[in-house]
Structures are given as structure tokens and as C-alpha cells.
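User: quick one, sequence for these C-alpha cells?
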């Protein structure tokens, strides 16, 4: 029950990020939003670390990997936030479900994880889902969808790096360096088009910043207290939830192909997360 509550917190946080990014699209650039999010996040994480008087969390022995991870995480976040301004919210979330597919490929190529026939089949299902959603041949949709698809690939590199970092660094350390490393990237990209946000924009900026941290925290807590399969299945609820948000607040249509394609990816993702557990039992 507790894990379900953590996942509901994560789902709501992801939706709030999407709404905030969409509302801010006419006021500030994506780069400025990311820069301000890093500043606010850095302040919150630093305050939490200082509150617990554990300054060791400000240090790491793997700075290069943190930089590597956050280059890709920044690119993924930038593409995802940009996609929210170009595509229906549900389509962005549906394409994001390809992250486990790319993560599985990266883990096989660079982390020496086993590549089984079951994993291959799960990847095939995932790619079928991508083709259903992206619909090759529709050039207008394809160009915007490609941005989100590349963002998902960048997220996958970030996830694989996080998997390695989590063996040596605490979650707060990873979040601290995420904000610290990404801050200069955001400031550099936002410098030319920097705008002074009004008070309403500041409200959305704070909401996005806090929701981003809560999404990370709730997802991590859910993974600790629940089976991975349950987390993956509940994460899928993001799609109908954000589809309702897009329909109700932004008059976006609901395309059945999004749910069909995402269903293929869900089945593939469930097969992928169940494979390691069965292999461990058999061994």
C-alpha cells in the first residue's frame, strides 16, 4: 500500500512538471526554466543535507561520471521539456516509455548484462510501439517526435550511469551534483534570451522545481518498497492521467494509437524487468 502511495506521488509530480512547462512556454525559454530549476533544486538539496549535518554528501569520488551522466540528463530533460511545447502531452509521455528499451540496449552493450531471447523479444515489442506512435511518413509529427525520442535515448544513458553511481553515492549526492553540474549548462544556453519572470511565472517555476525533486524522491522510495513490475505497471498510468489533463485543460484530442503503441511498450518493459529476476532464480 505504501509503495502505491509513493507511485501516486510520482505520477502527480510528473504531471505537474508537464503542466508547469506548458504554462511557462510563452514566458521563458526551456533553457531558462532548467537553469532556474537547478538553482532552486540546489538550494533545497543543500538545505536538506545541512539539516542532517552530513556534509559528506557534498563530496564524491566519481566526479567524471557525474558530469558524464548530467550532460545526457540535461539533454534529455531539455528535449522532453521542449517536446511538451510542441506535441500533445500524452504523445510526449508515450514516447518517454521507450527509455527502458534504450536502457536495456545500453546495459547489454556497456554494462555486460546478458542479452537473452526474451529481452530481444521485449525490445522488438518496444520498437513496434514506437512505430505505432511516431507513425513514419507524417513529417510534421515526426520532426517533433524525434526530439522526444532522442531525449529518451539521453535519459537511458543517464539511467545507466545512475545505476553505476548508486553503488557508491547516496541519492542526495546524486541529486546535488545533478543540480550543480546542470546549472552552468542552463545559464549558458539561457543567457541570450533571458527574461524576467512575472510573479505568476515564478509560481510555476517553483512548482516545476519542487515537483521534479519530488518525482525523483517518490520514484526512488517506490522502487525500494515495491516489486519492479508493480512500479512499471503503475508508471504506465501516467499516460491516461496526462491524456486527461491534456484533454481537459488544453483541448487536446486523445489518439487511440498512443495507447496501442504504449501498450506494446508496456508489455515489452514488463518482460524486460521480469527477465533478470527469473535468471537469478534459475541460477
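Assistant:
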Amino acid at each position: 500500500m505504501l509503495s502505491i502511495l509513493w507511485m501516486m506521488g510520482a505520477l502527480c509530480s510528473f504531471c505537474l512538471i508537464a503542466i508547469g512547462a506548458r504554462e511557462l512556454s510563452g514566458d521563458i525559454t526551456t533553457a531558462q526554466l532548467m537553469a532556474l530549476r537547478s538553482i532552486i533544486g540546489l538550494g533545497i538539496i543543500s538545505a536538506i543535507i545541512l539539516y542532517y549535518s552530513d556534509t559528506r554528501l557534498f563530496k564524491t569520488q566519481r566526479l567524471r561520471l557525474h558530469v558524464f551522466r548530467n550532460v545526457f540528463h540535461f539533454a534529455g530533460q531539455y528535449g522532453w521539456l521542449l517536446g511538451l511545447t510542441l506535441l500533445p502531452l500524452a504523445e510526449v509521455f508515450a514516447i518517454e516509455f521507450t527509455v527502458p528499451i534504450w536502457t536495456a540496449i545500453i546495459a547489454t552493450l556497456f554494462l555486460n548484462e546478458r542479452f537473452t531471447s526474451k529481452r530481444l523479444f521485449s525490445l522488438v515489442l518496444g520498437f513496434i510501439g514506437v512505430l505505432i506512435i511516431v507513425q513514419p511518413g507524417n513529417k510534421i509529427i515526426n520532426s517533433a517526435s524525434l526530439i522526444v525520442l532522442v531525449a529518451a535515448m539521453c535519459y537511458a544513458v543517464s539511467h545507466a550511469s545512475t545505476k553505476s553511481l548508486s553503488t557508491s553515492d547516496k541519492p542526495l549526492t546524486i541529486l546535488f551534483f545533478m543540480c550543480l553540474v546542470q546549472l552552468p549548462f542552463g545559464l549558458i544556453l539561457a543567457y541570450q534570451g533571458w527574461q524576467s519572470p512575472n510573479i505568476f511565472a515564478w509560481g510555476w517555476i517553483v512548482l516545476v522545481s519542487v515537483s521534479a525533486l519530488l518525482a525523483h524522491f517518490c520514484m526512488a522510495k517506490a522502487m525500494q518498497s515495491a516489486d519492479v513490475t508493480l512500479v512499471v505497471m503503475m508508471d504506465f498510468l501516467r499516460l491516461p492521467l496526462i491524456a486527461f489533463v491534456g484533454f481537459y485543460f488544453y483541448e487536446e484530442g486523445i489518439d487511440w494509437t498512443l495507447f496501442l503503441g504504449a501498450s506494446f511498450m508496456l508489455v515489452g518493459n514488463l518482460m524486460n524487468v521480469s527477465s533478470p529476476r527469473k535468471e537469478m532464480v534459475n541460477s
